Amino acid sequence: MFPFRISRFSVRPGSAVVLRYGTGIVSVAISLGIALFLRHDNLPHPFISFSLAAIAVTFWSAGTGPGLVALLLSYLALSALFVPGKILGSSSEPYLAFYGIFGTAVSWFSTSRRRAERLLTRARDHLESRVAERTRELEQSNEELQGTHAKLQHEKDRLKLLLDLNNSIVSKLDLRDLLRDISASVRRLMQCDAVGVTLPDPETGELKLFALDFPGAKGFLREEMTRPSGSLANKAFSTGDPMTFIIGQDVGTVEADFGREGLQSACWLLLISRTRVLGVLGLSRLQAIRFSQEDVHFLTQVATQVAIAVENALSYRKISQLSDKLAQEKLYLEDEIRSEANFEEIVGKSQALHRVLKLVETVAPTDSTVLIFGETGTGKELIARAIHDLSSRSSNTFVRLNCAALPAGLLESELFGHEKGAFTGAIAQRIGRLELANHGTIFLDEIGEIPLELQPKLLRVLQERDFERLGGTRTIRTDVRLIAATNRDLAAMVQEQKFRADLFFRLNVFPVELPPLRERAEDIPLLVRHFAEEFSRRMGRKVEAISSQTMNALREYQWPGNIRELQNIIERSVILSSGPSLNVPMAELHPLAMPASANKAPAKSTRRTPVRSILAEVDRNQIIGALKGAGGRIGGPSGAAARLGLKRTTFITRMKKLGISPSPVSQLKMDSTDTSGTSDISTVQNSPSDITSSE
Fold first, then answer.
1. Cβ atoms of 271 and 310 closer than 8 Å
2. Is the pLDDT confidence value at 3 over 70?
3. Fold designation for 519-584
4. What confidence tens digit (pLDDT) does each residue in 386-418 have?
5. What class is the 173-318 domain?
């Protein structure tokens, strides 16, 4: 252990050399002391002492000591001091030669060892240098490998994004949901803070932020906001080139919204389909880090996939809207077929009707709003249809809606449509009548029944030509002509604050007032003929005549239900008529009361026979005629009651009411008025001045 520690000192310069020589001298002194001690024991002192010295030198030379010569000189010097001369002189030359040879051999071995040690040291240093160099190479390779791995992982993430985009294109067809998912995926991968898709508005053509994924938004950027005309989105849309910029350096105040949100850099890329530019994909960061060319290259691929998604979604939306519209039109037309009386002509020749039709011919070619006034049953819808048929919109849809037929909540949904989930039961999106009538005409009957809270929304449609569905935020543009009708006094309702004045003024652009049937007495024969022929054809009957007295009674009646009431009476009459003569149940007209508006004085003062007496007279003559035709027999299949389509008890009750006694038929007399004369229905023709209009 001791020689090893000495050898450690030998590799150090300076004081280490002094220590090495001192140690050698001490070793020789110890050897001499041992030799002198052993000499007292009569051992051969030269051999013993030199042997011990050689052992000490050998141990010392095991390191990188000063050499054998220095130690031998030290030994001789010490021997001269402590060993008597006679002892030294008695040492024989062979011993000295032996020790010299032994020392030389030890020195040679020591030198060889030191040479080998130096070679090994150089080899070790070279090996350590190579190991260090190789280690550096491995570390560099490891860094490159890690960089390559990170790059491959990044490429993997990008490819995964493209795959996710393709999956989204396949799985989602709702445009807004699709673009929101795409924006969120792109934002996470590209390490940006906001991603938005800007599309042109289908109605106005203005660029609007259609979808936005910006978790830290402050509200300055939001969906559905219109981008300024000089914005970078508009510039990218018009030039067709990708754009990267640092906000505050490359752009001015035109993108102030980005600055307010704290966004510092952005990139715009076009969404290009096969045939046109669909919109712009925008990415922004809160740091002023410009997007690299590698980012732009990859985002161009993303934009291509997004463009495909947008084109598919837009096509799906258009097809879905057309499908919904066709479905709604189908339901609407089916409802029209069920409810329409199929009387497509406006029949009449009166001056009052002539004035109305002149107004129709005047306003029809325009797109002005028309407000039709008139009592219930005067034919307001027929006039509205005539206006539509004579307009430039005649090839498009005519949609009608009775505002009084629906409660307020359903009326808003029916008129404007609703989004999915807008209210309980709204399981799907539904387009409204206004959207259904786009490019056509909408007829709102009973406009006075619209609730006050719904009137501002209708006013907006008239003023701005746009609206939102119930529960929706997207503004829908509409090009529709509005025709409204009412039987109420809207001006009085405005005074009573039951109807908005601004809406009334918007509706009352071109008012048309329909006359009641009592002011069109000359049109009653024409209407009777029209309805009788129509119902006869539908029922397979052949009714060709009506008594002049019955016709006079119909003319004298005030008709509070107007044309609708006359239509219903003639339909019932055709059902009750078993022969060619129209059998009108005049008694059913008696209990009908006149409306308040009917109590006004007629336009022309005319003295007429009391209606009630005329009706009773006609009814009496019909019963007497039936009794004579049946030979006085009341009951039975061929009796008088069956001839009039009445029960036997009802027939007898009417006989008693009219004072007809069951006397022999030959003694029954009709009233002095000649009721035998009848007029052939087919002879009631319209003169050349008659006004008819096909709906």
1. yes
2. no
3. Helicase, Ruva Protein; domain 3 (1.10.8)
4. 999 899 998 888 999 999 888 877 898 889 988
5. alpha beta
Residues 6+ apart with CB under 8 A from 510: 359, 363, 368, 369, 370, 371
Cα within 13 Å of Cα(258), Cβ side:
33
Q: How many CB atoms lie within 10 A of CB 381?
A: 18
**Average pLDDT, integer, range 137-152:** 82
Q: How far apart are CA 406 and CA 444, in angstroms?
A: 12
Instruction: Name 353's Cβ contacts closer than 8 Å, sequence gap at least 6.
Output: 346, 515, 520, 523, 691
- Nearest Cα to Cα of residue 200 among 229, 243, 239, 242: 229
Nearest alpha carbon to residue 430 among 332, 507, 513: 332
The model carries a pTM of 0.51
What is the pLDDT, as a whole number, of residue 375? 92
Reduce the DSSP state of residue 256 to 3 states and report it.
Answer: helix
Query: In 172-251, which residue ranges form alpha helices assigned H by DSSP?
Result: 175-189, 232-239
Least confident of 76-80, 179-183, 458-462, 619-623: 76-80
Task: Tally Cβ neighbours within 10 Å of residue 4.
Answer: 9
The residue that leads in pLDDT, 36 or 474, is 474
Residue 429, CA distances (Å) to 325, 401, 414, 419, 547 in order: 12, 19, 12, 5, 57
Quick check: 663 pLDDT over 90?
no
Distance CA 371, CA 312 (A): 43
Q: Residue 277: is it exposed, middle or buried by C-beta count within 10 angstroms (0-12/13-18/19+)?
A: middle
Phi, psi for 424 (deg, rounded to 5)? -60, 125
- Phi then psi dihedrals of residue 221, to 5 deg: -110, 125
> Can you tell me the distance from the alpha carbon of 231 to that of 28, in angstroms, rounded to the nearest whole number?
100
Tokens of 331: 């339901």
Q: Which residue from 32, 48, 44, 45 is spatially nearest to 81, judged by alpha carbons?
A: 32
- What element of type H or E holds 693? strand 691-694
Q: Where are the domains of the chain?
A: 101-171, 173-318, 350-515, 519-584, 627-653
How far, in Å, CA of 241 to CA of 272, rounded?
11
Strand order in the sheet with 441-445: 398-402, 441-445, 481-486, 370-373, 510-513
Pick the closest to residue 341 from 568, 588, 576 (CA basis): 568
For 144-158, 377-391, 464-478, which range has the lowest pLDDT when averaged over its residues?
A: 144-158
Selected from 3.40.50.11740, 3.30.56.10, 2.10.109.10, 3.40.50.300, the CATH number assigned to the domain covering 350-515 reads 3.40.50.300
Q: What integer pLDDT is reported at residue 25 of this predicted model?
A: 62
Higher pLDDT, 337 or 571: 571
Average pLDDT over residues 373-398: 90
Distance CA 394, CA 656 (A): 57
